[in-house]
Specification:
19% strand, 245 residues, single chain, four-stranded antiparallel sheet, 6 strands, 43% helix, two-stranded antiparallel ribbon, alpha+beta
Length: 245
Amino acid sequence: MSKEIWEALARPPASRLKQITGGRLSGMTDVNPQWRLEVMTDEFGPVGDGWKYAIEKLWTEEGTEGQKIAFAMVNVFWRRSGQEWSAPIPGIGGSMMIVKEKSGLHTNDEAYKMAVTDALSVAFKSLGVAADIYAGLWDGSKYKDQPKSNGPITPAGSCYDLLDDAQKDVLKGVAMEAMRKYENSKDLGEISRYIREGIFYGNTLNSDEIAGLFHLFKSYKTDKGRSFTAALIKWEADQKIALNN
């Protein structure tokens, strides 16, 4: 499976990112927690079926000047259809439960919930969730490996919706031929070569059609659909073309 999962989870869309403007983390990037849950569901299926987590431990530690910190330890598990659950992927996170403010000590009644959210983000990192952010590829407005654009990038799904019926039929044919050709292949490199040498050299596709093809592969909630999505992401990175998934 190589880096298929990692590459599918690595890049949050710009709309799910926010720059932190205050405190000691000022200038860093915050990833929307809901996106993490969404991308895990996109990749593995609904929580409890394709992935799940268990809260192993909740505890507090005393801080300075009467402050208190809540901590959580979680284990995340994932599986493909018909397979056993993975080994546990651990994560530990924390949040302030009692914090000193100008007016005095303030109690946060959502500290444990926030600690669990933080712990999940730590566990998800090991699978590659938002890896491009932690690798420093986001500069606050765009990804550093994303070429400059003369206008706004249209999301892949929107590109597909804007295509006419004839273009959609061509893309569906290309996608289904690719899926049939490599129905039994588990070699991501082989699939990548077919995308590079078969799809793009054998078909004249404009940028909107390429983005539409990406949308099609991503919509196939199967191992093969995920393989082609990951391979197309790799091709995108190699060609320095932004599909904005």
